[in-house]
Amino acid sequence: MRGLFSGSWCLLTLTCYYRHERRRADAVHDVEVKRFAFNRWKKVHNRILVCRSTFVGSRSNRIRIQALERRADRQIARQEDVLVRAVVRVWKAHQHGRLLERVHNSRVLRHTWEAWKKRLRQQKELEGLVASL
Question: I need a labelling partner for 11 at 20 to 30 A (CA). Which of 29, 60, 110, 116 fits?
């Protein structure tokens, strides 16, 4: 009797366990199906809202956007003008620096050449004195 009861009890507990697991799996599956359906509905609904908001008031939106674009174009033109002026200023300063460097180099070369010619003259004078002795 005891063996029959324990076998039935095991069968009953296994049946309850599997029934519980099946219900849990079904609940999880139901939640996943609901989540999938809700996400799909949300995507479609968002597309509909976007389309509706695009077509409703499109003229006023277009006018407002065109005004903003004109303002943006003017601002960009101003910024480009400022940028061009700054680049030209930097370029002019660079060119001025190069000119100053060339002038400095030519002056140094001229002074060096004059010193060299003076030394040659002095050497010739010394040679002349030596030759006269």
Answer: 29
